[in-house]
UniProtKB/TrEMBL annotation:
All copies of domain Globin-sensor, residue ranges: 3-153
Compartments, record wording: Cell membrane
GO cellular component terms, semicolon-separated: plasma membrane
Sections of the chain in a coiled coil: none
Protein name, entry field: Globin-sensor domain-containing protein
Annotated Gene3D superfamilies: Globins
A Pfam family reported for this protein in Swiss-Prot or TrEMBL: PsiE
A GO molecular function held by the record: heme binding
Membrane topology, as annotated: Multi-pass membrane protein
Annotated InterPro entries: Globin-like_sf (IPR009050), Globin-sensor_dom (IPR044398), Globin/Proto (IPR012292), P_starv_induced_PsiE-like (IPR020948)
UniProt entry keywords in alphabetical sequence: Cell membrane, Membrane, Transmembrane, Transmembrane helix
Ranges annotated as spanning the membrane: 180-202, 214-232, 244-262, 274-291
Lineage: Bacteria, Pseudomonadati, Campylobacterota, Epsilonproteobacteria, Campylobacterales
CDD domains assigned: GS_GsGCS-like (cd14761)
Length: 296
């Protein structure tokens, strides 16, 4: 990355560098407050302990974060400064830190700094310049840190042979077609679910199975239809680039089994089958819980 070009693209001036340097004494006074708040923030991610595994690592990390925070206001933003940032990004890639954590942590950094420069100011024009300088240096830091992730992905792609890249491209296209086919198939399932619901309503009024069983059948059909619609919504999200929602498929299977349970619960002779279906449903519920827990 050409760091002079980076500053040029963000229109970062020497005047703004000087403004940040003048802000450093004030930021040094609140550095410990920043570190405490920063750690409270990142522990909220849920998996921070996977990367900060013991007190020694935490102490070292706190020290480095404090140094990085104060260097935001060092006033000298040259090749050495940005190269150091890039190396930090490389470490993040090496340990497998999700880029989402980096982006989210910068929200805290930005909010903290802006709150403290809002607390006391007398010159509005100067205050606006401080805000602009802070916004630019934070954005440039984030740009450099996340560039390591982009270059890692690019290097993996470029390290493939031409044959491997062609196969990868073909598989992506094939996967895209399959996803659209799956979305269409789910639409058909939803239509059949509507048909099942209407059929159960028809049996409720014309059949001889009894009102109680008929109502339970209708409720079960509605449950299956609801699960099918949820699955369609999840597939739409998947087509838009989100992760594959295996939990939605589990939910649809659970809905179908619950419908069976509702119907079989009125038949004493179905006790053994009801118990088996109940155990399978319990297993699916546990799987659904584990999938949801992993996503969090």
């Amino acid at each position: 990355m050409e760091y002079d070009s980076l500053k040029s693209h963000y229109r970062f001036t020497e005047e703004e560098a000087a403004i940040l340097k003048e802000m450093q004494p004030k930021m040094r006074q609140v550095a410990d407050e920043f570190i405490d708040g920063f750690y409270n923030y990142i522990w909220g991610f849920g998996k921070t302990a996977d990367f900060l595994k013991n007190d020694e690592i935490i102490a070292y990390h706190r020290k480095k974060i404090k140094e990085w925070f104060l260097n935001l206001f060092c006033g000298k933003y040259d090749v050495v400064y940005f190269t150091g940032l890039y190396k930090i990004g490389e470490i993040h890639v090496k340990i497998g830190l999700p880029t989402h954590y980096v982006n989210s942590a910068f929200t805290y950094v930005r909010t903290f700094v802006l709150q403290h420069i809002e607390e006391d100011f007398s010159d509005k024009e100067r205050h606006i310049k401080e805000i602009m300088a802070v916004e630019k240096i934070i954005d440039m830091n984030l740009d450099v840190l996340t560039s390591s992730y982009r270059e890692e992905e690019l290097s993996k792609f470029l390290s493939m042979s031409k044959y491997e890249r062609e196969i990868l491209g073909w598989l992506k296209k094939f996967s895209s077609h399959i996803n659209f086919f799956l979305a269409g198939a789910l639409g058909i399932v939803a239509i059949f679910s509507i048909g099942l619901f209407l059929y159960d309503v028809y049996l409720l009024f014309t059949g001889d199975e009894g009102i109680e069983k008929g109502i339970l059948s209708v409720l079960g059909s509605l449950l299956v239809l609801w699960a099918a619609i949820e699955l369609i919504h999840e597939e739409i999200h998947h087509l838009q680039g989100r992760g594959f929602a295996i939990g939605a498929f589990i939910m649809l299977a659970m809905a179908a089994l619950i419908r069976k349970i509702l119907i079989y619960s009125l038949s004493p002779e179905k006790g053994e089958e009801l118990m088996i279906i109940g155990l399978v449903t319990l297993g699916l519920a546990l799987s659904y819980w584990l999938v949801g827990r992993k996503r969090l």
